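Work Package 4 report. The design task specified in the project plan requires that, given a folded chain encoded as structure tokens, an amino acid be chosen for each position. We show below one input record used in the internal validation round.
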């Protein structure tokens, strides 16, 4: 795959010359940060974006620039979605199914990070329930709306390196809770979900991938205690091999670039069932805590199948029996 983009590429650079007129994209988390920029870039190139958000008033205000810059048939329509409530997720899916309009891309962008111990409305650990199970139910319920050739893009994180999924204790009922362990589990789940979804649907021309957008100053870190981010950055840098590139921030347009690249530019065969970063496919590594690359456990097909089965058990629904 020829790739001319990298860590500093922006959404507008990635989509330069790309016409998305007639393409329909479902994007979660459009009330701030990466979600707003992703929606803006897609709509500016002609895509019809359906933006899902928990707080529609906040999303309406945050996306004024999206509507202002929409061009070439591009548009934005908002729908209500609270990923921490499966009732809300199912209502959102039912509404999309009732409308019956197909999608070319789903970008599962919304999420929470390093929040205090808590549960969703359905009793799941907050990060696993919101970041993974909410998207798991939403995407699988509307899979019939995905056109052949469409893509699922899960926004994960290099934070998956903090922990593999724990299928025996997903809700920390028998182990001490740690914010970044829980975050790591949920982000690994995002990747494993893409791996298994890709396996189940690639024969029908639907592919899935997951990605790390980079480190960006957004609302995602709002739960972190004062000084926690600085300590985290120091720990990350200390864990890198001698001579390795140290931690650096990305701008929001740079952070959203890999999402639009994976959704609209990259070759489907190259990214299907893989993990992407910096507008490229990431290398697989088994070395713990490396800042770049994807941990091998996050792409393990057996773990991916087991997570799918456990997720079905937890939410009380079965999807696609392949």
């Amino acid at each position: 795959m020829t790739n001319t983009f990298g860590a500093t590429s922006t959404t507008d650079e990635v989509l330069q010359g790309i016409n998305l007129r007639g393409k329909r994209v479902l994007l979660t988390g459009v009330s701030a940060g990466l979600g707003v920029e992703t929606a803006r870039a897609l709509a500016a190139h002609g895509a019809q974006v359906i933006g899902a958000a928990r707080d529609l008033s906040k999303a309406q205000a945050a996306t004024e620039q999206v509507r202002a810059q929409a061009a070439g048939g591009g548009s934005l329509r908002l729908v209500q979605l609270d990923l921490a409530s499966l009732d809300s997720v199912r209502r959102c899916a039912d509404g999309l199914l009732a409308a019956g309009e197909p999608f070319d891309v789903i970008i599962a962008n919304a999420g929470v990070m390093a929040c205090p111990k808590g549960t969703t409305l359905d009793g799941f650990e907050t990060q696993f329930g919101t970041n993974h199970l909410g998207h798991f139910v939403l995407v699988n319920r509307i899979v019939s709306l995905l056109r052949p050739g469409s893509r699922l893009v899960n926004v994960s994180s290099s934070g998956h390196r903090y922990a593999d999924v724990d299928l025996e204790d997903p809700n920390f009922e028998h182990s001490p809770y740690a914010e970044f362990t829980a975050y790591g589990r949920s982000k690994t789940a995002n990747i494993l979900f893409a791996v298994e979804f890709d396996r189940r649907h690639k024969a029908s021309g639907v592919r899935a991938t997951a990605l790390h957008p980079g480190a960006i100053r957004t609302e995602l870190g709002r739960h972190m205690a004062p000084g926690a981010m600085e300590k985290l950055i120091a720990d990350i840098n200390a864990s890198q091999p001698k001579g390795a590139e140290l931690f650096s921030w990305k701008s929001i347009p740079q952070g959203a670039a890999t999402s639009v690249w994976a959704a609209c530019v990259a070759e489907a065969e190259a990214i299907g069932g893989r993990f992407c970063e910096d507008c490229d496919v990431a290398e697989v590594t088994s070395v713990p805590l490396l800042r770049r690359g994807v941990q091998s456990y996050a792409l393990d097909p057996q773990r991916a199948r087991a997570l799918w089965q456990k997720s079905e058990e937890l939410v009380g629904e079965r999807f696609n029996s392949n």
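Residues 179-201 form the longest helix (23 residues). Validation will be extended to a larger panel in the next phase.
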